[in-house]
Amino acid sequence: MTGKYDRESLFGPGILDELLAFDNFPDDEDDTFDDTPPQWMSEAAVAAADILGVEVARSSVLGFDEALAAVVLADTKLQEQLRRHWADNGVSSRVRALAAEDGPIGRLHTELIAVAGPATSYETVSQGDAVTDASDNVIVGPWTVSPRLVHNRAAASKKLEVDTFTARNDEWGLTFLQTPTSNGEVIVEVRFDSDPVGPLDIVRVRVGDEDRLLVLKPLRPVGLSAKVKLRGDRAWGPASVDIFYPVPADRLPSALLPLVTESVARAPIPEQNLWRRIQRQIAADHPLAIAIAGGLG
Hints:
The chain starts with 6 loop residues before the first helix and ends with a helix. The chain has two domains: 110 residues, no CATH class; 170 residues, no CATH class. A five-stranded antiparallel β-sheet has the order 6-7-8-12-11, with no helix packed on it. The protein is of the alpha+beta class and 297 residues long.
């Protein structure tokens, strides 16, 4: 068995039979090995490792299945390889989207990012009240919206109904939606197209005197979304809504940490679970993790 190894040459017809037939364990009677390992077996082991490395590289961009994720989490050498891939190329939006999902896949990708993601020691520099990384990423905005009630007379009932107000910011890849409820509240939703915005990024929405930080999650089939229900008494009219461009959670200005705690405390359980995902990806003593813990109580 010589030449270039690939999946077929390693695991194709007959190879498994040879492996099963090979006796590399001592017999009880003579305590000696029956066979000497053939040359192709050591070469195949090296080739198999190479193929596994290729799979890790591929999955670092497109996402891991449960089996490969478990293998990487149990192997420090593979973790180091994954760490190099992500240090050079960053964690892809696809992997971040998988980490934001519920269930085993989400948990496994969250763990992979925690153990092999780009260094998150959060060595930061202070600029005024903002904590940023070396690229000086800070909050951008706001984009101010003036929602108005949109009435629609249903043809069948001739009843005057209120439709959802929408607005679009093409530069940000953002669609804003505001829907009144029957009890005087409003449901505010922001939808972003995708890259460079990613899952678990934080968007700040200010409606009247209501100020919230929301966690973006994948929107099927594409895009990202966050929504919140707020009081509606000051949600309509000129310059009623301010939206700030999303940022990764660890790049939130330090002045917003109290708002993190408040937003987490007032969030429904599904969104609190998104904050928990963010918390698991950073050091326990990081100011953001402490702020999230304060909101979770």
